[in-house]
Amino acid sequence: MNPDLFLQLDRVIHEKGRLAIMSMLAAAPELSFTELRDALTMTDGNLTTHIRALQEEGFISVAKSYQNRRPLTTCSLTTPGRKAFAEYISLLEQIVRQNKPK
């Protein structure tokens, strides 16, 4: 087993809440704050904190608009976010393959 692979995991993505957000956004062009919150059963504050961390890293973009006169916040993966997530998944696959019993 190569422990260096574990050290290469992106710490921003690796946190379980952020990993869940990235996974959901990888499967959809964009999701609303409410869709993310409800699907992940997070509090508004917890989700906001994770979104902010991912946004500061440049992994997701956040758009604020109005729909039927109500505020609407949507999130989507950026191109660097898609790349970082793909690299993260690839690294996880390497770790799994390396540690799979023969």
What is shown here, in short?
The protein has helices spanning 4-7, 11-14, 16-26, 33-40, 44-56, 79-99, and strands at 31-32, 60-67, 70-77. It has 102 residues and is α+β, with helices and mostly antiparallel strands.
What does this protein structure show overall?
The chain is of the alpha+beta class and 102 residues long. The chain contains six helices and three strands. It has helices spanning 4-7, 11-14, 16-26, 33-40, 44-56, 79-99, and strands at 31-32, 60-67, 70-77. A three-stranded antiparallel beta sheet has the order 1-3-2. A hairpin with a 2-residue loop joins strand 2 and strand 3 (70-77).
Percentage of β-strand residues = 15-25%
* Number of E strands: 3
Helix content: 55-70%
Mean pLDDT: 93
Order of helices and strands: HHHEHHEEH
CATH class: Mainly Alpha
Shape: elongated
Task: Give the total of domains.
Answer: 1
